[in-house]
Each structure stands twice: as C-alpha cells, then as structure tokens.
Specification:
Helices cover 36% and strands 24% of the residues. The protein contains nine helices and nine strands.
Length: 293
C-alpha cells in the first residue's frame, strides 16, 4: 500500500524550521539565514520513494502582525494547521514556551499527530533539556516530543522514520519526480533575497521584495532579469552602494548560487526600484504571491 501526506512545519521565528526542512528534503528548498522572518511564504518540498510521498511544508515564523505583509505571513502559518496529516511544531532550547500562546492553543486542539521538536539541543545540557521537555509536556500533553539538532543532523533520521509510520495510506498527491510546488522564478527571487539578508543590516532586508521580470532558458544558459523593490529612495541608495559596489556583490553571489541551483550558466541583470506601498497594499502583496488562499 502507498502512503502519502502533508507534513507541515510551524513554530516561532528563528527556531530552525527552514534548516530542518532542508535536511528532511535533502535539497536547498527554503532559504535559511540567521535573521528572523526569512521565510515569508509557505514553501513545499516533496520527498518521494517507491512506496511513499511526504509533502513537507515550511511556513513563516508565527508572530503578532504589525503590517499587511506580516498578516499574510501569519495566515500562511495558520493555514498549515488546517491541512496537515502530521504537524511538526519546532521550538528550541532557549525559547520561552509560553510565547504566542494563542497559536499554541490552536495546536493543542488538533486531532492529527503533533511531533514537538526541541531543536538546537547541542546548545544545552541533559538536565536543562529534561526541564524543557517537562514544560512542553505540560503545554502540549498530546504531542510526541523529540529532541533534535537540525544543523548537525542529530535526530533527523529518527524523525523521518516516525513521520513515515504516521503517514496515512494514500496515492501520491504530486508527480513522483516533483521536488516542490513552486516555479523556478520563485527560487530566483528567494535566492536574491537571501543575499540581501546576508549583506545588509537593520531594516533593509525587511523592506525589500524581489520580482523576476524575465526568465528565459536555453539548453546551456538562463537569462534572468530581476527587480529589487524598496520602500524609500534612501534604501535604494544603500542597496546600490557607492559606485554600485553593493549591488554588484549581491548580483555576483546570487548568480553563483543560481548556477549551482539550476546547474546552468546564468546571465543575471538586477535593477532597483522604489515602491513605497508594497508592504501595506493588498494589490501589491497579491502580485508578489502573498495570498494564502
């Protein structure tokens, strides 16, 4: 009998959800950097074997929304509670378990298996870990608790085995050779955005969106034309940098990563434009794909 199901990954920002997703899927599906709110969409990564298909779904960190973009991000996380066959709730050894209690209450009422993953256990000792497990057991008594270290691949094989046991009998939901539900353009914009997260400080990365205007593929190369949208002229200046040096660095590093990702030569052109309303306008957010429906 074939097994298949949706395994959705939720939790607060910066607990290692994207790193875990990449370990489980075995590909670099979610960009993972050290900054909170890196993941803005719900991203699927699909694991196939002859007898099963696991559709993993990485979601943005749960947060109290301050503007429309964050409202969309929270909606992606809450939608992951509705269609999960197995839910992975990720926390870590330093997080306060009481954080975002409202979301936790919703998780506690779910009638699908919940695996509570305590990540980053390499950063604590056995005694403290025991206390953390006890606190979480009090908050989510029906959850199965598994300590892991996603970065060091500790406990991830055991987790995968447990997920397989919990999957329902079902035919596959996607083609067996499919790795994700997102188009190529999506990964181009995410990779460029990742470089911006790594190279710029303060609010700049959170004020930025990337739109791929052109993606033309031939047998040996891909021509890509992308626009980085910012909210203010001053941010445009920072992104471009003195004599264009900063933008050139982002373009070069993005091109290298894109060549690895697609296995082809990449010709990449990147421009910067000001769009002062993009984080607050529903129309703009819809055009960037922030619609969880």
């Amino acid at each position: 009998m074939h097994k298949a199901g949706f395994v959705n990954i939720v939790g607060n920002p910066n607990v290692g959800k994207s790193t875990l997703m990449n370990q489980l899927v075995g590909e670099r599906i979610s960009i993972a950097t050290f900054k909170a709110q890196t993941t803005r969409h719900r991203i699927m990564g699909i694991v196939n074997t002859p007898e099963m298909q696991i559709v993993f779904s990485d979601t943005p960190g749960v947060l109290k929304p301050n503007y429309k973009l964050q409202e969309s991000m929270l909606a992606f996380s809450e939608s992951a509670l509705k269609d999960a066959d197995v839910l992975l709730y990720v926390t870590d050894v330093v997080e306060n378990p009481e954080k975002n209690k409202d979301f936790l209450d919703k998780v506690s009422k779910m009638d699908v298996p919940v695996l509570l993953l305590i990540n980053k256990i390499d950063q604590t000792d056995q005694k403290n870990l025991g206390n953390i497990v006890e606190r979480w057991h009090g908050l989510l008594p029906n959850a199965e608790i598994l300590p892991i270290s996603a970065l060091n691949k500790f406990g991830t094989d055991l987790l995968l085995k447990r997920i397989q046991e919990l999957l329902p009998d079902s035919p596959p939901y996607f083609d067996k050779d499919q790795l994700t539900d997102k188009p190529a353009r999506f990964f181009v914009s995410e990779i460029i955005r990742e470089k911006i997260l790594l190279y710029y400080d303060k609010e700049i990365p959170y004020s930025v969106e990337v739109s791929v205007q052109q993606f033309k593929e031939t047998n040996d190369r891909i021509h890509i034309n992308a626009v980085i949208f910012v909210e203010r002229e001053s941010q445009k200046g920072i992104i471009i940098g003195h004599q264009g040096v900063a933008l050139k660095k982002v373009s070069t590093e993005s091109r290298k990563t894109l060549e690895k990702f697609f296995g082809k030569h990449i010709f990449l052109e990147v421009f910067v434009k000001v769009d002062k309303d993009w984080r607050s306008s529903k129309k703009e957010l819809d055009s960037f794909g922030y619609n969880p429906e």
